Amino acid sequence: MNRMGWMVLCLIGVGGVLYWRLVANARISEQVVMTHYATLKDAPLSSKQYEDMLEVYHGCFEEAREKNVRGFLQSRSQQDSVLGNMKIENRVSKILQDIRVESLKSFKDRTNIYIGMLHDKVVGFFTCADDHVLADNGVMIWSICVDEKLRKKGVGSKLIQHAITSCKQDGRPLSLIVDSYRSHLISIYQHFGFVQRPPEHPFPDSLDYFDKVYMRYEPAASVMPKDR
Ligand SMILES: CC(C)(COP(=O)(O)OP(=O)(O)OC[C@H]1O[C@@H](n2cnc3c(N)ncnc32)[C@H](O)[C@@H]1OP(=O)(O)O)[C@@H](O)C(=O)NCCC(=O)NCCS
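Predict the joint structure of the above. Result:
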């Protein structure tokens, strides 16, 4: 085969792989079945499924939380000595441990939760919070989370789209908050019609709101980022 023939063959191969990945990913997200529960306690999950769901949850938020806690403590500390840093690190571990224990206790009390199942596995979830102090009498999409093993296969997009349709209520704003440094996430939300806005109410001066940006669903005002 001549050079041209090899090139055509390569192109067909690469195209085939890309096409197959697209089709396979579409199949995965299409197979995810979303169900709403007034509280997580209502969801018919076995204890194994529930434990796996908790692991998915920790996989989604632990790393970002650690970064947040450290940043929050550093922003409040004047010390930059080795001793100061050690103190911060000790506090980071303690706070993370406390949060883990607390979230283990309170996880089951989540309300208005949407769970995505792939066959018998929980692969993602989110909640619609309609009484949140920041929501400005609107609804906030909270804790969108996809199992790490299934990311970048369209499941997150499916959840975000589902969250928009199910959390949005006529005449009430729809919003969410996101870590300011997570630009890829901000652009995902922009892609779905969210726009960065100043929060209607200032963020409380606490760890949960440290270094966050507020985004509102305003599809008419949003510009879809080209190169995500
Ligand atoms: C954010 C999250 C839900 C996205 O889920 P996902 O299943 O990976 O999303 P998708 O596969 O639908 O990807 C959506 C788009 O984002 C892109 N994307 C996803 N993760 C990305 C990453 N880490 N870096 C860059 N781009 C990323 C995808 O490539 C895709 O872009 P495309 O449509 O142009 O191909 C998931 O990463 C997650 O659970 N993160 C941890 C929890 C979290 O941070 N939640 C948000 C709280 S505000």
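The chain has one domain: 37-217.
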